[in-house]
Amino acid sequence: MSENKSGSNLERVLRAGHFAFTGECGPPKGANVGHLKEKIAFLKGNVDAVNITDNQTAVVRMSSWAASAIAVQEGVEPNFQMVCRDRNRLAMMSDILGAYSLGARNMLCLSGDHQRFGNHPEAKNVYDIDSLQLIALAKKMRDEEQFMNGEAIDVAPRLFIGAACNPFADPFEFRVYRLAKKISAGADFIQTQCIYNMEKFRLFMKMAVDMGLTEKCFILAGVTPLKSVGMAQYMARQVPGMDVPPGLIDRLKGASKGKAAEEGIKIAIEQIEEFKEMKGVSGVHLMAIEWEHRVAEIAERAQMLPRPPI
Amino acid sequence: MIIGDRKSLTEILDMIKDCRSILITGCKGCVTVCNVGGLKEVQVLASSLKIARKKEGKSIAIEENLLERQCDPEYIAELADVVHRYDAVLSMACGVGPQFLAEAYPTQKFFPAINTKFFGGATGHGVWEERCAGCGSCVIHNYDGLCPVSRCSKSLMNGPCGGSANGLCEISKDVVCIWDRIVKKKMEQGRLADLLTVMPAKDWSTSRDGGPRKSIREELTQ
Ligand code: SF4
Ligand code: SF4
């Protein structure tokens, strides 16, 4: 895992052996560039790259490539997300070229939530290709300098290719194999789903390490601080593939009045401390949803600062 | 077979609101088997429409009819004598029926009484489930006979996605995650290795995405 494949800062940080720290930012539900810039500013200097989500939860927002380009202008490295729900292979390839041309150097390949969850459940879904095939496509475009059909690309997009992994979805026994498949398809790094069940995650990581997967790919552990008991309960009950143990909810309930959010941050910091020591984990992906303004504080308290210079 | 559901009475009444007489024609094919457009259903719809129209004070004359198959011009021709006696014809076949009728009798009006839904079969009394999306290039042997094209909500060739939980699909607690089944079956049969290589992108040109399709059997066209 030594030679650099892209001009990505995240790749440089990881290859240099630093413990990486990435953030996340959802583009606005509109063309509110000012608000987007404000959110990006909260992350600047506190993370190595910022995931720019792509119509997350199937709700229409500013396109991820455009928001990624704005992040580049603001001096923050984007991790351009792309889901398979909204584009066919033609649109995917052209958006990869477009995002790269506007300065994106990282890309995260995702299936995407089904549109039934979102604000246009009447939409047609595309799923021309799936997330593994998207990883393979991004790799082919970079390494073979070819489109999916084998035609040559005139200046290939050299992206650091990421994929997601949810160790808490079912069937659990297959999850590590699906991770292996993503790596063999071409994933350079992995960002996991939000982790709450640490015991299950430890087991998952042990399997990944034993299979040699962490030698071939960087794994960033997903952390989302719980803001309230309500949020924890919602995640536990309503979000498919999310595993929030009852003990964690009890801990938030036990916090004194008005202190649940602080307890949530404490939990996240404890997790980050453990991930720093966990074999096979190369960094943390902090998804502080609509909490961008608290990222600096979390990074500081988790001793993730200063970030290696870009 | 082709599975459909009957449209609501309100929708059908609205379609035929200007008609004083209609012909309702069912089909002995798939829609009879899935209890949506056979003889009994034609009779039930006819009497429901009569009652509803009577309540509105606008009675309607209805003839009931059943064709061998509405996807075959040979049987469609049987209606030649009666089809123009009515203000309109209501077809209880799948979407093919009213189209074949409209092609054969271009001056008459035809309405679909059925919402045609999918290719599937009965999985219990009164329950039908989708099994095939007619992709035109079958790959189910790769998945131990379980079709991810029609049965995975995202048609994933390399599932299961991160939303699979407790054997159910992320879209609803009423939908099975077919990928959970595929993985478990492969594991039970000791064939997990089949799932470890990345399945390449599917060629959708044989499916509806390639445009309207045709099947020509040369030996039969002579
Ligand atoms: S793979 Fe295609 S042809 Fe085969 S069952 Fe599925 S949809 Fe039908
Ligand atoms: S949960 Fe299962 S069936 Fe539903 S989209 Fe994901 S893989 Fe497909």
Describe the protein in words.
- The complex is a heterodimer of chains A (310) and B (222).
- Chain A has 310 residues and is α/β, with parallel strands linked by helices.
- Chain A has one domain: TIM Barrel (Alpha-Beta Barrel).
- Chain A is built from eleven helices and eight strands.
- Chain A has helices at 9-15, 33-43, 64-73, 89-101, 131-144, 172-185, 198-210, 229-238, 246-254, 260-277, 295-301, and strands at residues 20-25, 49-52, 78-83, 106-110, 160-165, 189-194, 218-223, 281-286.
- An eight-stranded parallel β-barrel of chain A has the order 1-2-3-4-5-6-7-8, surrounded by seven helices.
- In chain A, helix 7 (198-210) links the parallel strand 6 and strand 7 (218-223).
- In chain A, helix 3 (64-73) packs parallel to helix 4, helix 4 (89-101) packs across helix 5 and helix 9 crosses helix 10 (260-277).
- The longest helix of chain A is centred in the C-terminal third of the chain and has 18 residues, at 260-277.
- The two termini of chain A are 20 Å apart.
- In chain A, 53% of the residues are buried.
- By secondary structure, chain B is α/β, with parallel strands linked by helices.
- Chain B folds into two domains: 2-118, Response regulator (Rossmann fold, 3-Layer(aba) Sandwich), CATH 3.40.50; 133-196, no CATH class.
- Helices cover 27% and strands 19% of the residues of chain B.
- Chain B has eight helices and seven strands; from the N terminus they run E-H-E-H-H-E-H-E-H-E-E-E-H-H-H.
- Chain B has helices at 9-15, 30-33, 39-56, 73-76, 96-104, 148-151, 178-188, 218-221; strands at residues 2-6, 21-27, 61-67, 88-91, 110-112, 114-124, 127-132.
- In chain B, the strands form two sheets. Chain B has a four-stranded parallel beta sheet with strand order 3-2-4-5, with helices on both faces. Chain B has a three-stranded antiparallel beta sheet with strand order 1-6-7.
- Classes of the chains: A alpha/beta (310), B alpha/beta (222).
- The interface between A and B is large, with 37 and 34 residues.
- The complex binds iron/sulfur cluster (2 copies).
- One iron/sulfur cluster (SF4) binds at residues 132-135, 138-140, 147, 149-150 of chain B.
